[in-house]
From TrEMBL:
[4Fe-4S] cluster 1 binds at C10, C46, C79. It comes from Geothrix edaphica. Belongs to the methylthiotransferase family. MiaB subfamily. It catalyses: N(6)-dimethylallyladenosine(37) in tRNA + (sulfur carrier)-SH + AH2 + 2 S-adenosyl-L-methionine = 2-methylsulfanyl-N(6)-dimethylallyladenosine(37) in tRNA + (sulfur carrier)-H + 5'-deoxyadenosine + L-methionine + A + S-adenosyl-L-homocysteine + 2 H(+). This is tRNA-2-methylthio-N(6)-dimethylallyladenosine synthase. It comes from the Bacteria.
């Protein structure tokens, strides 16, 4: 049977897709590049924002018409599956099975039951070892870095967040298991890994997260280590020291702020004040100047005033984030924030988001301009030049680099090369091969 997996959402979802693909491949199924060529389509979903949910239901509508033309199995997994569970069958009766985020290993069984003609197959139960996938099962995409799960779930209770519902409480992989997977990846040719978790720096799999970074960095042949994503309350001085001093840990930190207003942060139940967030950034010391900082913002949270939003802009300028991800507040089913009065007009929310993103674009351009004239290592992320003649690469600071290598030059995929930065925009750096 040929299968196709469509994935929405974060790196955790991307890696779940690799695990699901590996499970099916181990059963003798064949992966194909499009739903039109597949006999099984699996939608690996996100539910953190309403827009992501709409995309899933739109695709389900298209697949309903497809099922009327030919035999086709349709399954839904990921966060929307865990959130909606049996309600998905009511809204889209043509779904054959629903698989929860904490039951991924049950996929072959669910597919077999659906193939046998059983209707509305579902497993959204919690399996304690769900995150302990044997590395050999994972069917990795053709990327320059490898994703490695170290923890799943979250023990924080932010009022707007669906993650504790869709991913459960924190579970941590033993550090020996993580190290074994990284060693195996390096033996297969990977030189960069990204450690994943909903709250990666709360890791407690036999050592602290900072200690895990140090141990992973000792793997011979590994060049770069990234991690996503962190919570400010778990950002320690020990972790800051490793970030600044360990040459294998890239000079990039994503630390979500969400709002620059203490009033809003309290309603979000983020557990810190703006001053405490800034104090944690201060742990980086002089190393801050070498780091690229990224963050998240939610605009238009219930009760956000003009003053609250101006506070956010002030913090944005004070920190001068190199980049940020910003979104209008999206109410999610079952979250405590639904009880808050949300009467701010959408036009006001949209105007605030536009202002914030415009200011961030200016800051990002300024950040990128600081690279002009520098020679930096970048990793090649394409197998050949684009139609424009440049190669796509990535710096340790997570800067997208358009690299000119000259006619006829073949650059090795996944390898580090030296690049001289010649151009800066809000979206990428232009560079020449050294």
């Amino acid at each position: 049977m040929k299968f196709h997996i469509q994935t929405w959402g974060c790196q955790m979802n991307d890696h779940d897709g690799e695990k699901l693909s590996g499970l099916l491949s181990a059963e003798g199924f064949e992966a194909v590049d499009s739903a039109e060529d597949a006999e099984l389509v699996l939608l690996n979903t996100c539910s953190i924002r309403e827009k992501a949910v709409h995309k899933v239901y739109s695709e389900l509508g298209r697949l309903r018409e497809e099922k009327q033309r030919r035999p086709l199995l349709v399954g839904v997994t990921g966060c929307l599956a865990q959130q909606e569970q049996a309600a998905l069958f009511k809204r889209a009766p043509h779904i054959d099975f629903v698989l929860g985020t904490m039951a991924l290993k049950q996929l072959p069984r669910l597919v077999a039951e659906a193939q046998a003609g059983k209707a509305r197959v579902m497993d959204t139960g919690e399996y304690p070892d769900n995150h302990l996938f044997p590395p050999a099962v994972t069917r990795r995409r053709d990327t320059a870095k490898a994703l490695v799960t170290i923890t799943e779930g979250c023990n924080h209770a932010c009022t707007y967040c669906i993650v504790p519902t869709t991913r459960g409480a924190e579970r941590h992989r033993p550090y020996e298991d993580v190290l074994a997977e990284v060693r195996g990846l390096v033996s297969r040719g990977y030189r960069e890994v990204e450690l994943l978790g909903q709250n990666v720096n709360s890791y407690a799999g036999g050592c602290t997260f900072a200690e895990l970074l140090e141990r992973v960095s000792e793997v011979e042949g590994l060049e770069w280590i990234r991690f996503t994503t962190s919570h400010p309350m778990n950002f320690t001085k020990e972790l800051a020291r490793v970030l600044v001093t360990n040459p294998k840990v890239v000079p990039f930190l994503h630390l979500p702020l969400q709002s620059g207003s203490d009033r809003v942060l309290k309603r979000m139940l983020r557990e810190y004040t703006v001053a405490e967030y800034l104090e944690r950034l201060g742990y980086l010391g002089e190393g801050r100047a070498r780091m690229a900082l990224s963050t998240d913002f939610i605009v238009g949270f219930p009760g956000e005033t003009d003053e609250d939003f101006e506070d956010t802009l002030r913090v944005l300028d004070e920190v001068a984030f190199d980049s940020s991800f910003s979104f209008i507040y999206s109410p999610r089913p079952g979250t405590p924030s639904l009880r808050l009065k949300d009467d701010l007009p959408m036009a006001v929310k949209s105007e605030r988001l536009t202002r914030l993103q415009q200011r961030q674009a200016e800051l990002t351009r300024a950040s990128n301009e600081r690279f002009l004239g520098r020679e930096i290592p970048v990793r090649i992320e394409t197998h050949g030049p684009t139609e424009h003649g440049w190669w796509l690469a990535r710096s340790g600071e997570w800067k997208t680099v358009h690299l000119a290598a000259g006619p006829g030059r073949d650059l090795p995929f996944g390898e580090l090369v030296q690049a001289r930065i010649t151009q800066a925009s809000p979206h990428f750096l232009g560079a020449e091969l050294v």
